[in-house]
Specification:
alpha+beta, Jelly Rolls, six-stranded antiparallel sheet, four-stranded antiparallel sheet, 20% helix, 37% strand, elongated
């Protein structure tokens, strides 16, 4: 996933005295930096996009800060864990086994538009936190040796869908 940050577009939504609210626009699913993991029939893939480098760039101008990361989508989450393909495959498989796409979901019967049969993705999302927080110290994210941040799309099948991640950082700027 090297070079992924160059594909992400940043828009500052709020620029205050002590912090910012920034919206990250992720590239479409044709980007080689999206990892789509799922069963061979692709009925229920899970998409992962590493946003760590972009978050590190945002943190650089802060002496001390708290960064909060949240997707404005009901079927997307942010996860913090190792950037290791085996882990990502295990995470996707675990969710897919709990909530297979081909199971009957009441949500699928009551949801418009017809093509959006994503009841499984909503239930997957319920098992994961909506917001993740990271600490910033002297311009660096406190990630330890192996921690990375991923945007995880639990229903990446909709054509032309744009995905965003909102980042709020509050703290003291470097002088």
């Amino acid at each position: 996933m090297v070079g992924a940050k160059s594909e992400i577009t940043l828009e500052t939504l709020v620029d205050g005295e002590q912090g910012k609210l920034i919206r990250l626009k992720l590239p479409d699913y044709n980007s080689p930096h999206w990892q789509m993991l799922g069963p061979a029939d692709e009925k229920n893939p899970v998409g992962f996009y590493n946003i760590t480098d972009t978050l590190k760039d945002i943190a650089k101008s802060y002496k001390v800060a708290h960064m909060q990361i949240q997707p404005p989508h009901t079927t997307m989450r942010i996860i913090l864990n190792e950037a290791e393909e085996g882990y990502l495959k295990d995470r996707a498989r675990n969710l897919q086994e709990q909530f297979p796409a081909d199971r009957a979901y009441d949500h699928n019967e009551n949801h418009f538009p017809e093509y959006c049969k994503n009841g499984h993705a909503h239930l997957m999302a319920d098992t994961l936190p909506l917001i993740q927080g990271l600490l910033v110290s002297d311009g660096s994210l406190d990630l330890g040796n192996y921690l990375s941040a991923f945007a995880m799309d639990l229903y990446p099948l909709e054509e032309g869908k744009v995905r965003y991640v909102d980042v709020m950082i509050i703290g003291v700027l470097k002088k």
